[in-house]
Design brief:
- The structure is a single chain.
- The protein is 15% helix and 33% strand.
- The chain is an alpha+beta fold and 191 residues long.
- Strands 2, 3, 4, 5, 6, 7 and 8 form a seven-stranded mixed β-sheet that branches. The protein has a two-stranded antiparallel ribbon with strand order 1-9.
């Protein structure tokens, strides 16, 4: 087990829940927690994410359990990015499920798990941002597309592609892989 150094949540952050004020420590106590919170900067991947300040809708349930507080429910947000083929704008809506246990200090869970394995309640507060960020980032595509059949950036030399039938993929095969392409796909190589 490693030493636990959980930072104290900023009580003024819209992502922070005051456990004492919102829910009692009696196991089984439950309270809905529905909020729109502004997205912090860099809430996403390099090519797609939630723009800073845009609302992220949290529709959560806070439930007191023996070992701490369980936050579960759904998170939805509008994301904006760049198409990985044509570099045009990509917009989408994401909705993800979230379930995170926040352990009470000195609980069995707190004592028996490493700091990075479970979130902690610090000064009777929990910070929802890391759990929500992880859930949303896992849902985002690494290579977003504006459409499934995006042709990519148009070629400046249309005659170079004149022999390719309309609607077909227009991609160049790396010469280093051309032999494999011919052997297994029977396709031609283009220079």
């Amino acid at each position: 087990m490693t030493e636990k150094h959980t930072p104290v949540p900023d009580a003024t952050s819209p992502w922070v829940v005051d456990v004492l004020r919102e829910i009692s420590r009696r196991p089984g106590t439950m309270k809905p927690w529905v909020r729109d919170v502004p997205a912090p900067a860099d809430f996403g991947l390099e090519v797609i994410g939630v723009p800073a300040g845009d609302p992220i809708h949290l529709d959560l349930r806070l439930e007191s359990v023996v070992e701490g507080v369980l936050a579960s429910g759904t998170v939805s947000a509008h994301v904006v990015g760049e198409c990985s083929r044509c570099l045009g704008e990509v917009t989408d809506d994401v909705e993800v499920d979230v379930a995170e246990l926040y352990a009470y200090p000195d609980s069995v869970t707190d004592e028996t798990t490493d700091a990075e394995d479970v979130a902690r309640i610090v000064d009777e507060k929990i910070d929802l941002e890391p759990a929500v960020r992880d859930a949303v980032l896992l849902e985002l595509p690494n290579a977003p597309l504006c459409s499934d059949d995006c042709p990519g950036v148009p070629s400046p030399d249309e005659e170079a592609w004149a022999f390719v039938p309309a609607g077909s993929a227009r991609e160049r095969i790396d010469p280093r892989w051309a032999a494999l392409q011919e052997r297994f796909a029977g396709g031609s190589t283009e220079d």
